[in-house]
Write a structure and sequence with these properties.
623 residues, 14-stranded mixed beta sheet, 45% strand, globular
Length: 623
């Protein structure tokens, strides 16, 4: 029997909340911040090109033409099939790739565990790469038997690392049974800079996250969906889905339709004559969004939600709808909603009944360097992937070479000492590489002073050790993105950004007085998962497994979790569930989350707050 708990709880020091600033406007940011935001949000400028020796597989080298005339289905599918669980980037240069059947992630060999995982479809640019379904394609013309143009794998939750980036999927015309993408990723997986469009507005779903159970956790960022009955479909109870910078246009039924999932959304822009969001189950957190209604929208709600404990909305603007929010029997009218929480707000001490509303910064980026002149291959400096020998000196030499991008081609690398990220480096990237960081090395990578204010660490995974993968010991900004089995102990003053990151069951995260912004953060160890010691920690979409304390906030820290899934799969480390799920020790927190527990020991204390030396507990019996 499944036990599902949907819980809202806000605990905060009122004096801190009272002086908390609203999110910064762009005009108040520094010039560097504005440039970083422009780099992140201008989706027409990207030109993703890898060096020839990076291990990336170019579809044009395997028979695809990309001329908009040749049927490229077989060429692309054969390349996908050749690398099941291969951590390979299947790369599409700019062009139009005509397809007539579903492109499916490789099923691999039964019994080997290599099915439908660790596959990346990467385009050169979102507008320049178009995967286009033939008009009136066989199997796509009947709405009662829908089919996807791209399918990344069925349940269960083993679809690790799947990603789609920088491309457009066009379902053509006369394909009313078409689904743009059925996307499945587990623990860590992302869709970035993607457009899904219907040539004539027909089709079932643009992005389908509801075709199987256990889809997620995953991150969808910078997505545009035009046409279809539903722009995005979500459902089932696990494992949570986080979306940011989403545009939905011209849907015929709903913009986003959720039937059970915990969905966390920031920056949704909808232009529709239909209800933008219909939440028929599960839980939705919606931040900083704009919903524009046209035509028949005047007689409809912008957001409809059927249950009294399933909605958190903040900073919402609506135009053209009858009401902004229709939630159970609670209707909110008005073009601007500052904050709406369905159901009750729980406090252990007198506190404002609202979220902390910590300032939010956009994840910065650095320029994509010219691979011909500014990239350094660690292999060129002596690293040999997959040989089991120490690659520390080679990777350090590549970092110290003066190049701005250092890359690890696909494969396994071994460290015997800590790597210092310094000098000119601003991007350390793997073409889906894995680094073995044994417990004798702490940390694996350490950010110290350097010439660039921002360092991006991405597409590099680690193995199953407890060692912290990363330490930011500097004042520089560290971005950790699309990484598996990594963790961090942050000791410097520099900001930290975390996107689409999972740590393994033996790793913990520690923050010490930094500013931290996390999107799709998956922490799965038993015991204390995250320690916030005096920092400002903002999370959109936290998914956990196992028991123990999920976040311990102390030292005057501030923690704001917007949309969590506590998946209680085991007891705590001592075999009991006596640890509080959250601790607020003379600090300030606000938490919104749901819990799924399939029969493991229930938490006895969900929240413990110490204020002025007085301890109070929110117990399971009080919920």
């Amino acid at each position: 029997v499944m036990k599902v708990l949907i819980l809202s709880a806000f605990l905060s020091l009122p004096v801190i909340v009272g002086c908390m600033k609203r999110p910064e406007s762009i005009v108040n940011r520094t010039t560097a911040d504005r440039l970083n935001i422009a780099n992140t949000t201008d989706r027409n400028r990207e030109n993703i090109i890898f060096p020839a020796d990076a291990g990336v597989l170019n579809v044009k080298n395997f028979g695809a033409k990309g001329d908009g005339v040749t049927d490229d289905t077989a060429a692309i599918q054969s390349l996908l099939n050749a690398h099941p669980n291969g951590q390979r980037i299947i790369y599409l240069p700019n062009g139009t790739y005509l397809v007539s059947k579903t492109l499916t992630w490789p099923a691999g060999t039964p019994g080997k565990g290599d099915d439908y995982k660790n596959t990346i479809l990467q385009g050169q640019s979102e507008q320049g790469v178009i995967i286009r379904l033939k008009d009136g394609a066989g199997g796509f013309t009947t709405a009662t038997t829908p089919k996807a143009v791209i399918f990344t794998g069925p349940a269960p939750a083993q679809r690790f690392g799947n990603s789609i980036r920088n491309l457009t999927v066009d379902t053509g015309s006369r394909n009313p049974g078409a689904i743009g993408i059925q996307f499945n990723a587990s623990n860590q997986g992302s869709m970035r800079q993607v457009t899904i469009q219907s040539g004539d507005g027909q089709g079932i779903n643009g992005l389908d996250l509801n075709f199987a159970d256990e889809i997620g956790p995953l991150l969808i960022k910078n997505l545009t969906v035009t046409g279809f009955q539903y722009g995005i479909r979500t459902g089932f109870r696990i494992n949570s889905q986080t979306l940011e910078n989403i545009t939905l246009k011209n849907q015929s039924v709903y913009g986003l339709y959720n039937t059970g999932q915990i969905v966390n959304i920031r920056h949704l822009k909808s232009d529709n004559a239909v209800t933008a969001i219909y939440n028929a189950g599960g839980r939705i957190t919606l931040l900083d969004s704009s919903l524009n209604g046209t035509g028949k929208a005047a007689s409809r709600p912008a957001i409809q939600s059927d249950f009294p404990l399933d909605l958190v909305v903040r900073n919402l603007k609506t135009v053209g709808y009858q009401v902004a929010i229709q939630n159970d029997n609670n209707t909110k009218i008005g073009s601007k909603i500052a904050e709406f929480v369905s159901g009750s707000v729980v406090n252990l001490f007198p506190s404002p009944p609202q979220t902390l509303n910590l300032p939010i910064k956009e994840t910065p980026d650095v320029p994509w360097d010219n691979p011909a002149t500014t990239w350094a291959n660690v292999v060129s400096y002596g690293a040999i992937p997959n040989d089991g020998r120490d690659d520390t000196a080679a990777i350090q030499a590549a970092i110290d070479s003066g190049k701005t991008t250092v890359y690890l081609p696909v494969g396994y690398y071994n460290l015997k000492k800590t790597i210092l990220i310094r000098k000119n480096v601003r991007r350390l990237i793997g073409t889906e590489a894995i680094v073995e960081v044994p417990n004798t090395v702490n940390p694996g990578f350490k950010v110290i002073g350097g010439r660039n204010p921002i360092v991006v660490f991405e597409r590099i995974g680690s193995a199953y050790n407890s060692t912290p993968t990363l330490e930011n010991a500097s004042s520089r900004t560290l971005v950790i993105r699309d990484a598996t089995n990594v963790s961090g102990n942050m000791t410097g003053s520099g900001d930290v950004f975390i996107e689409n990151v999972v740590s393994n069951p033996w790793q913990t995260w520690t923050f010490n007085r930094q500013n931290i912004w996390a999107r799709q953060f998956n922490v799965e160890n038993s015991g204390t998962h995250i320690t916030n010691n005096g920092g400002k920690l903002w999370i959109l979409g936290l998914k956990t497994e196992r028991g123990g304390t999920l976040i311990d906030t102390k030292g005057g820290g501030k923690t704001e979790l917007l949309g969590g899934l506590a998946y209680t799969t085991t007891a705590g480390p001592d075999g009991t569930q006596n640890y509080p799920m959250f601790i607020n020790n003379e600090s300030s927190i606000s938490i919104t989350l749901g819990e799924v527990n399939h029969g493991n020991p229930n938490y006895k204390t969900y929240f413990r707050e110490i204020r002025g030396g007085v301890t109070r507990n929110l117990t399971d019996s009080s919920l």
